[in-house]
Amino acid sequence: MNIHVEINRYRSEAEIHLEAKARRKRFEIAGRRALVMKAAALPAPVTEKPFIAQKAPMWELRPVEFDAHVREWNWRAANPAHAYLKDRCIEIGMAYSKVVGGRVLHEIVAVRHQLIWEIYDKFPLSLPQIGRMFGGRDHTSILYAVRKVEAKMKIEEEAVVKMVAEALR
């Protein structure tokens, strides 16, 4: 600690040390007073018990539906093509989200095209409606899938006719 002192004012070095000691004591007392005043100004901390909410019964948290089967039946009646699509996905063993998703893996695309053709063939829906069922696809994508499956079926039919003709010879 550097204390600037006028040496000419003091007669001896001992007086300088006594003066420094007195100053330190004054600063120390002033610091204690400030802490006491500061502590007195602060309000005493209030200790409150935390609020613990009681858990509500399940029937109050969310509505309990005892007629889920009725809702499912109504949904299937209102959306037969959609219900057919979901059922076929389960039969095939491929997730519905994969079929209507954007993945372009060959296995998924082949199943998707087959299901698009089935929906097109069995239900009186427009191409844009079928496209919306399959993840918002454009009607031209649906038309491409239908034509591709029909071309594949025609090739397979011709192959079967050819095999039958050869077997009858």
Automatic annotation (TrEMBL):
Single Gene Ontology MF annotation: DNA replication origin binding
Residue span, Chromosomal replication initiator DnaA C-terminal domain: 88-149
Region forming the signal peptide: none
InterPro entries linked to this entry: Chromosome_initiator_DnaA_CS, DnaA_C, Trp_repressor/repl_initiator
Highest taxon in the source lineage: Bacteria
GO biological process, one term: regulation of DNA replication
Gene3D superfamilies for the chain: 1.10.1750.10
Protein name per Swiss-Prot or TrEMBL: DnaA protein helix-turn-helix
Protein species of origin: Rhizobium lusitanum
